[in-house]
Design a protein that fits this description.
The protein is an all-alpha fold. It has four helices and no strands. The protein folds into two domains: about 70 residues; about 45 residues.
Length: about 130
């Protein structure tokens, strides 16, 4: 990932772009429900238009550009990951299941032992 300094100062035009993006998204959703009597392709078109406008406004802002940079770097880092083979994944999954089974038996045994100690030996409730 990049080692760019964190920028917390935003310009008023950047804030306005984010506000316009939110307004466009809300307008698309409201338009979708407001046009309930119209054909579904009109309603979906209004919703998609609001979404496209919101993405367009957000993309031109500093926050949108930094998000795109982050997304590109995340994809680049994901490509560097060495994924396990199917055999290795199955072996690791088997080990996890075996551990969970052993742990469940251990906890069940501990619970029964404590139940026996408290209720039968100490309290004599049974």
């Amino acid at each position: 990932m990049s080692n760019q300094p964190v920028q917390t100062v935003r310009t008023s035009s950047d804030k306005a772009k984010i506000i316009l993006a939110v307004v466009a998204l809300v307008a698309g959703v409201v338009g979708f429900y407001f046009l309930a009597g119209e054909a579904s392709y009109v309603r979906i078109g209004v919703l998609l238009a609001g979404l496209v406008l919101a993405v367009g406004f957000a993309w031109t802002s500093i926050s949108g550009q930094s998000f795109l940079t982050f997304a590109r770097e995340a994809v680049r880092e994901t490509k560097k990951v060495v994924w396990p083979t199917r055999k290795e994944a199955m072996q690791m999954t088997g080990i996890v299941f075996a551990f969970v089974l052993v742990m469940a038996i251990f906890l069940w045994g501990t619970d029964k032992l404590l139940e026996y100690l408290f209720y039968d030996l100490i309290l004599r409730w049974k």
